[in-house]
Amino acid sequence: MFPIRTIDTSIPELLEQLGTKKKSWVRIGKDRYLFKVGRPGTGENWAEVIAARLASMLGIPHADYDLAIRGDEKGVLSPLIVPEDGRLIAGNELLAKIHSDYPVHEVRQVSDHTLGRIHGLLTHPDIQCPPDWPPPAGSIMTAYDLFLGYLLFDAWIANQDRHHENWGVIQHRGCIYLSPSFDHAASMGQNETDENRQERLTARDQGRHISTYVTRARSAIYERQGSAKPLKTVELFEKAGSKSPAAAQVWLRQLAMVDTQDIATLFEQLQESEASQFTKTFAMRLLDLNRDRLLKSLTP
């Protein structure tokens, strides 16, 4: 079973203003952690924990998450991903420095948050990959090539929350590098009810079946300014990959190497108090279907 960390309520906390969920910084021993409270009635906590382990399997740098409880609040605990003397600069702030009319204070449905702008930013030679991250064998040359891995990961787990505050760069001692991936709770159908999950797994109506359900996941990144809707997650990876085909193939090969039995073992460790068997079955089926969809573009 996954460990559940207990946070002493006497430990002072500093509220984090970024984002819409309740978050606070706590210091445990010498280290700082972010405690993020999952919204009741959702599976945000288990999704965050599972997603972090899946990110490890894929080989992308990411924030770590453990289940945690503080008083009567259940959430996840994540160690600081920014060095003590470093700074995280979110995507909206970065893009606003380049585009003077960028809507920096908006979070949702920002059609200025486009693939082209992200590509232009993350191919800049001053932005590097994390210095302590061992890249997979192949053509990962730029921060954008690494960001492609994040987009593949989003498509695999159906993460629909890669908005412009959920990625960024870290500035540390004269170096600027792409931040590890973080905030993956809006994934794997975590907010569906078990009744809906059961129906979608067994529906004869193709429109209600999980195989159709997975095709509807949308990112928070648009193809162009003024587009009515953001790109779907798999579509986004394909369009992003066309800008760096060799790197896209590297990430597809990484996905192909993930062992489905390792995924099953991962879900077996998830407590029934966090996720029912229907929840686990649905999430694993979603991962299988999305992997199949993505690997169709893998070159033999």
Task: Note the main attributes of this structure.
300 residues, alpha+beta, Phosphorylase Kinase, domain 1, Phosphatidylinositol 3-kinase Catalytic Subunit, Chain A, Domain 5, six-stranded mixed sheet, four-stranded mixed sheet, 10 helices, 10 strands, globular
Question: How would you describe the overall organization of this protein?
Answer:
It is a single chain. The mean pLDDT is 95. α4 packs across α8, α4 crosses α10 (277-295) and α5 (194-202) packs across α10 (277-295). The protein has two domains: 4-79, Phosphorylase Kinase, domain 1 (2-Layer Sandwich); 84-300, Phosphatidylinositol 3-kinase Catalytic Subunit, Chain A, Domain 5 (Orthogonal Bundle). Strands 1-5-6-4-3-2 form a six-stranded mixed beta sheet, covered by helices on one side. It has a four-stranded mixed beta sheet with strand order 7-9-10-8. The chain has 300 residues and is of the alpha+beta class. The chain is built from ten helices and ten strands.
